[in-house]
């Protein structure tokens, strides 16, 4: 009996032993290392299962060419880069791996929070760059006033797995955790000992740190924009480890320059890699702009640890194995 075909569209290259250890008796495994859909043409149509990461999207024009696909698994949490509805219309389940990087992303969100609220990143950047006059005094006074974190509000948008893990870490620091998630049933706040905001406006008006943990949907696209940044207390901090387009990052340089935001920790951007005209990235790279010292940008790496990346690969491979064998699928998001 011929083997099935598994295609890994992007991100994973080189040694495929994690996938082959799980699927090698059932399927061939091919990693395409693609960065756009055009690079998939003629290479994916006969796949029995597909593993997709985040370097590209699968739209209708690719999905409609699939002739025998039994599963598309997004090796990650967000599924905004797959046309899930069209896949459903073709009878193709789409699943994700919702639990692969919970700890890593939560740790990263708290790491960005501490780096900013304790002045760590600012002082490291300020005291290293420029002339002696530009660097200023070798003193804590450059970050005055910093306040104790205990009792200050850590505000979460979204209280799923990662939001909850982050909230518990912030709570361990003694922060007052407030969250907004209109889709979460009543009682979650009581279960983990945090407070619930009835509206995003209420959340924003109370936040020292605003940490984003929601999926990208039409409702959440550019949810954090200039108007909503203006609702934050002056000198608040923004952390985004969710999806880049949840924030209108074009509004951040002005918010940082004016002091409305004291800092922003950004792990995800709407375009990755960023475009040459990305306003936030250009301000961050400009030594003359306030963003240069007050913004931290990482290349969508909050998920990463050796263990977390292996979880993505192993869990995604097991999902494909279940699909090929006709077993019950888990974490399906479109059926």
Q: What is the number of E strands?
A: 12
CATH topology of the largest domain: the name is Rossmann fold
Q: H/E element string? A: EHEEHEHEHHHEHEHEHEHEHEHHEH
Arithmetic mean of pLDDT? 96
Q: What is the C-alpha radius of gyration, as a whole number of Å? A: 22 Å
Q: Provide the number of structural domains.
A: 2
CATH superfamily of the largest domain: NAD(P)-binding Rossmann-like Domain
Characterization of the model:
By secondary structure, this protein is an alpha/beta fold. It folds into two domains: 4-100 and 306-325, NAD(P)-binding Rossmann-like Domain (Rossmann fold); 102-297, Rossmann fold, CATH 3.40.50.720. It has 14 helices and twelve strands. α4 (102-117) crosses α7 (161-172). The two termini are 30 Å apart.
Topology:
Elements: E1 4-8, H1 17-23, E2 27-31, E3 49-52, H2 60-63, E4 71-74, H3 84-89, E5 94-96, H4 102-117, H5 120-126, H6 132-135, E6 153-157, H7 161-172, E7 176-180, H8 188-192, E8 195-196, H9 200-206, E9 209-212, H10 226-229, E10 236-240, H11 252-258, E11 261-266, H12 279-285, H13 291-294, E12 295-297, H14 306-325
Parallel strand pairs: 1-2, 1-3, 3-4, 4-5, 6-7, 6-9, 7-8, 9-10, 10-11, 11-12
Helix pairs in contact: 1-14, 4-7
